[in-house]
Amino acid sequence: MVTLTDAAVNTLERVLAKSGGAAAGLRIAVADGGCAGMKYQMGLEAEAGEDDTVLTFGPVTIFVDSNSQPFLDGVVVDFVEGVEGSGFKFDNPNAASTCGCGKSFSAGPGGSCSSASPSSGCGTTH
Length: 126
Fold this sequence. Notes:
Elements: E1 3-4, H1 6-18, E2 25-32, E3 38-45, E4 53-57, E5 60-64, H2 69-72, E6 76-82, E7 85-91, E8 97-98, E9 104-106
Parallel strand pairs: 1-6, 2-5
Antiparallel strand pairs: 2-3, 3-9, 4-5, 6-7, 8-9
């Protein structure tokens, strides 16, 4: 299933604390879209859904729905800071190809957005 690095846990702990208790955890999901075919989604949630897998990393709780689970099996989520900005980075062993921005991937053969423009979803910080 999903693994969080220490940097991701520390960042998410601060984000959840800022929610003032309104969020019980973070949902990580996969949806159609992005420049490579599928995109990662993250958002604060008040509670787990009925079909969610619930993962705990110290003070951080992650919710993953059953449709996203196969695409997220083995994924490592990190939080990186660099010259171009900061954001969450997904290292996905299931991705056949990834977008240049790392926020979109293809689960099957083909697909690349190395020449895509920022308006196509690449180059954004999530």
